[in-house]
Structure formats: C-alpha cells, structure tokens
Amino acid sequence: MSAKKVFVVFGATGNQGGSVIKSMLSDPAASNEFRLRGITRDPSKPNAQALTAKGVECVTGDVNDKESLKRALQGAHSVYAVTNYWEKMDAKLEIQQGKNVADVCKEVGVQHLIWSGLYNVTKLTNGKFPNVYHFDSKADITEYIRSIGVPSSTFMPGFYMSNLASSVQPSPQPPNAYTLALPMPPTTPIPFFDAADDTGKFVKAMVTKRDQVLGKNVLAATDYYAIEDTVKAFSQVKKEAGKGAQFMQVDKDTYKGFLLGAGMPDFAAEELYENMAFMDEFGYYGKESLDWSLSLLDEKPTTIAEYIAKEPAWKNLN
Length: 318
What we know:
By secondary structure, the protein is α/β, with parallel strands linked by helices. Helices cover 46% and strands 18% of the residues. It has helices at 15-25, 28-33, 46-53, 66-73, 85-88, 91-108, 121-124, 133-147, 164-167, 195-208, 210-213, 227-237, 252-261, 266-282, 291-295, 304-310, and strands spanning 5-10, 34-39, 57-59, 78-81, 112-116, 152-157, 159-160, 168-170, 178-182, 189-193, 217-220, 223-226, 246-249. The longest helix is centred in the first third of the chain and has 18 residues, at 91-108.
C-alpha cells in the first residue's frame, strides 16, 4: 500500500482551514488518500490540540517567514493556502505573504497548491472601482503563482453569508423592522457562500480531483441570490422577527457613514463601498456561471435559508 500524500492546510483552526480539515476527516476515501498537516500559530492551543487528537499533525508556520514555511511544507504533496488582508489591511504585505507561500511551494516541490483567491476588481471593472484591495491583492498572488510554474488551482470564495448577521439589523425607527441596507439595487445577484461549513466541501473536491481543476478557478458559492430575495428568506425563516423585514438601497455617503461611525478608517470604508457597488454592474465573479464548480461537489452546499436558520446571532429569533 502506497504512503498517504501529505495535504497541508493553512489556518487549520480558522473558518476556512477548519472547514477543510473537517471535510477531509469526515470522508473515508479522502482520509485514506491524504494525511493532514495543519498550520497554526500555536499548536499547544486547545483548538489545535483537538485536531491533533483526531490525527492531524499540527505545526507552526508564518507566512512572513520563508524558513518557517520550508519546515511546514517539507514533503507536502498538496497545500491549501489562505491569507488574511483584514488582519493588517495592507495589500502589499498580503501580496508578499502569498509570494512567500508560492516560492516555498515551488522550492519543496508541491504538486498542487490550492490558493484562496479572488478576481481583480480594478481589471474587471476597467478601472471604475480601483480600491477593492482585498480582491486585487489576491488576484496578483494568483498571477504570480501561475507565472512561476507552481501546479495550482484557485478556490474563489463567494460573499460570506456570515456578513448578514451584522448587516440585517432592526431599524431604529418604529416599527423597528429588520432591515438590510446596502449601496446596490435590490435585484443585485450575490453569490452567497457559507465559509465555515462549505469551504471544505469545495476544497476537498479540488484536492481529490486535481486533474480536473489544475489551472482553473473554482467558484465557491451555493447560488446567485438577488439581495431582496435574501431578505424575503429571512422573513420566511424567522416568521415573527421577520415581519416587515425590508431591503433598503442607500447611497455611497450613507453607507460609508455607517462604516465610519463604527470606527473604520476612510480608505477601508471606501474599499467596502466599492466592494458592494461593483457587483450589480459587473458581477462578483464577472457574471460567470457556477454550474461547473458546483458539479465538482459530492455534498450539497448550504442554502441561504439553511444558513439563516442556524446563524448563532439569530438563534433566539422566531
């Protein structure tokens, strides 16, 4: 019997990485093919120890330190890598972190790097929205990975369903109906995605179907939902709390005012405004179909209604 291939998962105790570990461990065929190594900041922490108890090798690795990455990736066949722009809100730093991962993957001979990337919004919109840094930086990393010849595919997460918990809030005006206020038309199609439960479903498909996905983008989303239909789903699932639930299209200044009032710096508020605004005209994924990506899955992704029903912030709403 041949030895298992080593699959290294960055952010093993986080939302995306943790979902990958969970899906791999719950699939006998995937577990039989791959041995998991999780990269975490502190393998002694309880979350990491819980993974160790399940047979995951937990190691330290720092995306800012190539030497630590060499140790963490030694002997790896496949790698799932993700960086966090929002930790420092520094696109140049994120790009360097991604390049560090790519360089080390090439050096140690990784056969499949699954990179968590996004499209370049500046290019997609022909320069109309040039400030969506957390998309553009990841797109730059994707280009770099491909340019240096690392065998790779790109996992492209959709719009997080978890964003809704902080966005759908009671209106301050009577009758205090739950309201979703965003700078986009109500018919804007949003490719919603449950990161905590569904990242693993897509990445497991990618790592086990390497030949089908190499060099391609996998669009990780359940479906395109019109934003007004998302509010309707909330009112249907939460029948009492959702009475009168509404979507409200707001202008740029109003939306940025919400963010600035919450303490966000102006450049980040502008970035999030553009992130919302580009989707109607140009599409989150450039209006690409999700069909091929969904065809890779052997598990159904979470629907928006299922997510609303389980969202912890709304657990006490009827």
